[in-house]
């Protein structure tokens, strides 16, 4: 039984599904639930999402009392029929909320009916009481791949140089789009192609050609499950990173793994590595005098989902000389994975798991760090301790994040620039 | 206290003949109301919109030293983070986090534990329990839990029975919260004291400051609530001589209940937007409360300078689409006309019988004016905008962010004060800037590569999916 949560920051399964779905061009989510479920997601997922604009655009049956009593399937049928006429899309995905699941609407029958009429409509069951927003990435991604493969499961035209990326979750990680862009360009430099699945340049067509990729590059537990699934289904090999590799070491690790798969590109990749390293050190040396002058070496606490804070925490400790007092993990990490996370830090760093805003505040107070990397919900404790705060996890409503990243040379340099500036400003 | 007998207020469709779906002329809908042939309409295509829960939260979430417990699955009420940001407060809130097991076995133990523990930890003066769809459908026992806790903790534990589906109009949530506040927090009898209640539900901080400033300037003793109020402000609401409701569609139920129980009449006034309207608003209040002289002095002091100020922001004849609350519509149209702008289409979130005087005024101005009623629903608004040829969109629409990447500039007044002298001037100034310096919106002139709406839809009449409800 889950506990009550004060100042909750993580949405439900339905909201997580919307975070993911609205990041795919051509995908149109249809909510089958009471009004308001989707609206609330808007404010935990940072700024609205490009052309699909805002959550008020999302189709929703907004079911009312009589549909709760007598069932809401006919309302859903009507909504599906009209959504395809109003909202332009290549794939319509019905996602269900608590109310319609409790009363037992046969949602699958409605989507089946629509697809028999030739409309690309699928459904994914996402009642809020059944899961966490962090469960949505795997569920939705796998759900779409499975449904699309029902129409066309032939394995044609494998393109060895084509790469799928999994494990960076849209709108659940505030820097998802910038991180993906950096990854795309790095892979492009290595003369390989990326199959864009989320954000700018994504399309349903790209989702249909997931099976044609020569390699899946996957990050964190979010990506691993999907990679395993695709390996079983299409025998696509994958390379796995426990965390999104940040900093120059991360880039090198990624390039090394690519080189190990693509022997013929090895020379080029080695060159890229040298150039990146050179460039990184060039800019880092510009920072060096300031680093020492302003003592940019602080005791820091990080707050956010494991997918973000473990890699950033390690970068700060190992590559930037910061003292990471604690990494506070706010997603629902399974017990099995906790061990592996703890191994990544030495004993001076405490790993603490909570998604309760109040308990997190208490923990931070206990550590009394010099800087917090967290979400907007840690703003008050930062104010209380009179220390700076940088937003690295959601919610970050007060801050606009468009294409900023943590990954890549420019991403990490921008980050340490901001980190240093905020410390200088506070000193 | 017959009015408070039910566990929640009667839904607005029944109480006020509220409608939340209509597109047509002002005249046609006014006739429906007056001929007693009002049709309830529904949308056969709809986009996500606010539920009653989100409105109920706005009634309680700026009151000092309260705790809010949202009784539902983890995603319910997560918007409270946003409300805290928007309202500039740190109101304590929690979600009981109902999971699958609770939804089968019942959630009363969980609720009890959450409320108790939040009381022990944070010592709030009042705890509100806001219920959600899962609790309502499963018919979980909330009443006996909250009653037990009132006895046990010695503070009011107030159940607010929202559910997300009972009413088609989200604004019903305002009433549900108000109903609970009066029922649980106010004494049953009260002696008259020399002040008036200023009832404000969803106004932003600057708007409240301006109202406060004007009323203080004419020497009126006021008790403002529930927005940014203390528990004490609520408790003494029954002692007031008059109620002054800032926005009828939001706070009228409060005034109605207070009048029924404590016999507190309303001061009926216009909306203080624009200079003339603000003068009139003050004059009416002055008359009612015997403050004529002070009102006269204030008007003399501010009215002329404000008029001069407004002249600076005259526009070249522009066309406006206006999405605003019905209480404000005529006042804003008058102000826009003073600024040389013409309103070519309007939208309300809802309409009801208490707001028909505003509709009459509109009718007298232009019976053929097109009126869209609904909350959010940007698909209809985008359709209409294309056809009306508006030069600017002005409003506080729920879905305003969905319209921003269009070719015309958007004047988002959600966080802007437009009330009183100050509000009128800042409205005019900001609009003027937006129209004269429109470089940002010009970027979207060529349109976007991935259209959101089917071209077939944009050619249809915007009322295509608004149908008469089949009972």
Rounded mean pLDDT of chain B is: 95
Number of strands of chain B: 15
Low-confidence stretches of chain A: none
Class computed from helices, strands and strand pairing of chain B? alpha/beta
Which two chains share the most extensive interface?
A-B, 74 and 74 residues
Describe the structure.
The complex is a heterodimer of chains A (427) and B (471). The model of chain A has no long low-confidence stretch (mean pLDDT 94). Helix content of chain A is 48%, strand content 15%. Chain A has 17 helices and 14 strands. With 427 residues, chain A is an alpha/beta fold. Chain A is globular and about 70 Å long. The longest helix of chain A is centred in the middle third of the chain and has 28 residues, at 266-293. In chain A, helix 4 crosses helix 6 and helix 11 packs antiparallel against helix 12 (266-293). In chain A, helix 13 links the parallel strand 10 and strand 11. Chain B has 471 residues and is α/β, with parallel strands linked by helices. Helices cover 45% and strands 15% of the residues of chain B. Chain B has helices spanning 12-16, 26-34, 52-60, 80-87, 100-105, 108-122, 133-138, 143-153, 172-185, 205-217, 231-235, 248-262, 275-289, 292-311, 326-338, 356-365, 378-388, 420-436, 439-442, 455-459, and strands at 22-25, 41-43, 66-71, 92-95, 126-131, 157-160, 196-200, 222-226, 242-245, 318-323, 341-348, 370-373, 392-395, 410-412, 466-468. In chain B, the strands form four sheets. In chain B, strands 1-12-11-10-13-14 form a six-stranded mixed sheet, sandwiched between helices. In chain B, strands 4-3-5-6 form a four-stranded parallel sheet, sandwiched between helices. In chain B, strands 8-7-9 form a three-stranded parallel sheet, with helices on both faces. The longest helix of chain B has 20 residues, at 292-311. The radius of gyration of chain B is 23 Å and the shape is globular. The model of chain B has no long low-confidence stretch (mean pLDDT 95). The interface between A and B is large, with 74 and 74 residues. Strand 1 (5-6) of chain A pairs antiparallel with strand 4 (92-95) of chain B, so a sheet runs across the interface.
């Amino acid at each position: 039984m889950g506990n009550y949560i004060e100042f909750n920051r993580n949405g439900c399964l339905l909201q997580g599904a919307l975070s993911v779905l609205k990041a795919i061009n051509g995908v149109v989510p249809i909510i089958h639930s009471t009004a308001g479920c989707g609206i609330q997601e808007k404010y935990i997922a940072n700024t609205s999402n490009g052309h699909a604009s805002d959550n008020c655009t999302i189709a929703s049956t907004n079911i009312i009392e009589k549909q709760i009593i007598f069932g809401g399937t006919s309302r859903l049928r009507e909504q599906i029929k009209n959504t395809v006429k109003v909202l332009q899309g290549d794939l319509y995905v019905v996602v269900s909320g608590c109310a319609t699941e409790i009363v037992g609407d046969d949602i699958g029958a409605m989507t089946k009916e629509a697809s028999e009429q030739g409309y690309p409509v699928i459904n994914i069951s996402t009642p809020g009481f059944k899961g966490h927003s962090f469960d949505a990435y795997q569920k939705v991604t796998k759900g779409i791949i499975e449904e699309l493969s029902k129409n066309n499961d032939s394995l044609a035209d494998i393109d060895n140089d084509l790469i799928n990326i999994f494990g960076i979750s849209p709108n659940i990680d505030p820097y998802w789009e910038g991180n993906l862009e950096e990854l795309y360009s790095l892979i492009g430099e290595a003369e390989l192609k990326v199959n864009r699945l989320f954000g700018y340049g994504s399309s349903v067509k790209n989702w249909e050609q997931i099976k044609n990729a020569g390699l899946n590059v996957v990050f964190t537990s979010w990506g691993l499950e999907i990679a395993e699934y695709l390996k079983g289904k299409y025998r696509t090999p994958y390379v796995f990173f426990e965390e999104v590799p940040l900093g120059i070491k991360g880039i090198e690790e990624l390039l090394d793994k690519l080189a190990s798969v693509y022997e013929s590109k090895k020379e080029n990749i080695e060159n890229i590595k040298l150039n990146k390293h050179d460039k990184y050190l060039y800019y880092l040396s510009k920072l060096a005098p300031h680093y020492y002058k302003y003592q940019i070496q602080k005791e820091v606490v990080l707050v956010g989902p494991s997918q973000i804070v473990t890699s950033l925490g390690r970068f700060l400790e190992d590559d930037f000389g910061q003292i990471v007092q604690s990494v506070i993990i706010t997603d629902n990490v399974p017990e099995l994975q906790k061990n592996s996370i703890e191994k990544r830090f030495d004993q001076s760093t405490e790993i603490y798991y909570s998604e309760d805003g109040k308990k997190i505040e208490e923990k931070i107070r206990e550590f009394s760090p010099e800087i917090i990397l967290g979400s907007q919900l840690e703003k008050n404790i930062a104010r209380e301790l009179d220390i700076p705060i940088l937003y690295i996890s959601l919610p970050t409503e007060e801050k606009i994040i468009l294409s900023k990243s943590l990954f890549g040379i420019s991403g990490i340099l921008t980050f340490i620039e901001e980190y240093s500036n905020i410390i200088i400003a506070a000193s | 206290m017959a009015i408070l007998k039910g566990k929640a207020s009667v839904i607005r469709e029944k109480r006020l003949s509220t409608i939340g779906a209509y597109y047509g002329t002002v005249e046609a809908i006014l006739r429906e109301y007056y001929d007693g042939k009002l049709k309830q309409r529904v949308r056969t295509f709809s986009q996500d919109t606010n539920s009653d829960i989100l409105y109920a939260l706005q009634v309680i979430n700026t009151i000092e030293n309260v705790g809010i417990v949202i009784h539902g699955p983890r995603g319910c009420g997560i918007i409270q983070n946003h409300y805290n940001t928007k309202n500039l407060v740190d109101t304590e809130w929690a979600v009981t986090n109902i999971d699958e097991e609770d939804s089968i076995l019942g959630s009363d133990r969980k609720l009890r534990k959450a409320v108790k523990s939040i009381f022990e930890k944070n010592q709030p003066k009042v705890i509100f329990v806001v219920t959600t769809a899962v609790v309502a459908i499963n018919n979980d026992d909330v009443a006996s839990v909250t009653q037990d806790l009132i006895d046990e903790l010695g503070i009011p534990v107030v159940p607010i029975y929202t559910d997300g589906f009972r009413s088609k109009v989200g604004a019903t949530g305002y009433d549900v919260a108000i109903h609970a506040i009066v029922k649980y927090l106010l004494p049953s009898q009260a002696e008259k004291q020399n002040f008036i209640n200023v009832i404000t539900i969803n106004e932003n901080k600057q708007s409240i400051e301006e109202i406060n400033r004007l009323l203080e300037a004419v020497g009126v003793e006021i008790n403002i609530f529930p927005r940014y109020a203390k528990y004490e402000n609520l408790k003494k609401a029954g002692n007031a001589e008059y109620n002054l409701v800032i926005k009828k569609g939001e706070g009228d139920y409060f005034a109605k209940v207070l009048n029924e129980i404590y016999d507190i009449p309303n001061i009926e006034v216009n909306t203080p937007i624009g200079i003339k309207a603000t003068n009139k608003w003050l004059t009416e209040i002055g008359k009612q409360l015997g403050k004529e002289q002070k009102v006269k002095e204030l008007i003399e002091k501010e009215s002329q300078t404000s008029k001069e100020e407004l002249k600076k922001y005259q526009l070249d004849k522009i066309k406006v689409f206006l999405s605003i609350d019905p209480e404000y519509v005529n006042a804003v149209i008058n102000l826009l006309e003073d600024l040389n702008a013409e309103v070519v289409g309007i939208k309300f979130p809802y309409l009801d019988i208490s707001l028909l005087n505003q509709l009459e005024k509109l009718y007298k101005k232009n019976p053929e004016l097109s009126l869209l009623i609904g909350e959010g629903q940007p698909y209809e608004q985008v359709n209409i905008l294309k056809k009306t040829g508006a030069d600017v969109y002005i409003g506080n629409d729920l879905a305003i962010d969905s319209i921003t990447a269009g070719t015309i500039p958007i004047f988002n007044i959600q966080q802007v004060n437009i009330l009183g002298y100050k509000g009128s001037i800042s409205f005019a100034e900001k609009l003027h800037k937006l129209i004269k310096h429109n470089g940002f919106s010009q970027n979207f002139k060529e349109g976007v590569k991935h259209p959101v709406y089917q071209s077939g839809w944009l050619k249809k009449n915007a009322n295509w999916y608004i149908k008469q409800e089949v009972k």
